[in-house]
Amino acid sequence: MDPQHHPCSTELRAPRSVPLDGARLLFDPRTGLNLRVEGPSTRGLVRTAPRVVLFGITNQCNLRCSFCSRDSSAPSEWTPDSAFEMLTGLAERGVLEVAFGGGEPLAFRGFDELVERLATETSLAVHITTNGVLLTTERLARIAPHLGEVRLSIYDDTPWPERVAALADAPGAVWGEPAGDSGPSTRAGPHPSSPRRAGLPRRGAAALRGPGGDPAAEPQR
Q1: Least packed by Cβ within 10 Å: which of 5, 26, 72, 163?
Q2: Confidence (pTM)
Q3: pLDDT (0 to 100) of residue 156
Q4: Residue 219's closest CA among 169, 172, 179?
Q5: What's the CA gap between 116 and 145, in Å, rounded?
Q6: Model confidence at 4, in pLDDT bands (50, 70, 90)?
Q7: Considering all CA atoms of the chain, what is the largest pairwise distance in Å, rounded to the nearest integer?
Q8: Which contacts (CB < 8 Å, 24+ apart) does range 189-198 have?
Q9: Burial class (CB in 10 A: 0-12, 13-18, 19+), 15
Q10: Integer CA distances (angstroms), 200 to 155, 191, 204, in order
Q11: What is the pLDDT of residues 138-153, one digit of tens each?
Q12: Is 60 exceeded by the pLDDT of residue 7?
């Protein structure tokens, strides 16, 4: 495939290879492909780092939900540069993915540029959880090529139907229903023809945008 036409990156990279306990994992952060390799040569391997880091980059939020325990007035010590430096070091030590939350990560100043730098200058897969209000069509077009999963929190008073539709129309998109709402594991597959169909996940559910060019080839998550 021509790298210039790859849907998630302008550069094709070899999968990352990290040790697990008694095995080796090959992981492609751009497609989400996972391959576990076991054999005599891997029996002595030991995991050296967690797979994913959950990163609460800010306490700020554009909503004031009554059930939220986060103090949105508490300042964040992070800057785009300090977050990039920390996450680059974690990637070098074997971390594969970063999942940004908050607060609302899209309210963090410089977040879009941070996402792009992480996706293009490190080997991390980058995911976010957002209420979607700040995820305009223009902003999604700018950052979508650099994101893996987008988890969308659904509330009655937010424009989530429009955000779901935009995510579903993104190249390589899949729709998922989270564990706990629909069964023992998240189901993912090609997005439905109408994201507003009856039976959409209820409040607190997620819309997932999986990386990769062919939605039909996406693995179960």
Answers
A1: 5
A2: 0.76
A3: 84
A4: 172
A5: 9
A6: very low
A7: 56
A8: 189/215, 189/218, 190/215, 190/216, 190/218, 191/215, 192/168, 195/161, 195/164, 195/165, 195/167, 195/168, 196/161, 196/164, 196/165
A9: middle
A10: 12, 12, 11
A11: 999 999 999 999 999 9
A12: no
pLDDT greater than 90 at residue 94: yes
Nearest Cα residue to 135 out of 153, 148, 116, 120: 153
Q: What is d(CA 58, CA 105) in angstroms, rounded to the nearest whole number?
A: 6
- Model confidence over 23-41: pLDDT tens digits? 999 999 988 899 999 999 9
HEC sequence for the chain: CCHHHCCCCCCCCCCEEEEECCEEEEECCCCCCEEEECCHHHCCCCCCCCCEEEEECCCCCCCCCCCCCCCCCCCCCCCHHHHHHHHHHHHHCCCCEEEEECCCHHHCCCHHHHHHHHHHHCCCEEEEEECCCCCCHHHHHHHHHHCCCEEECCCCCCCHHHHHHHHHCCCCCEEEECCCCCCCCCEEEECCCCCCCCCCCCCCCCCCCCCCCCHHHCCCC
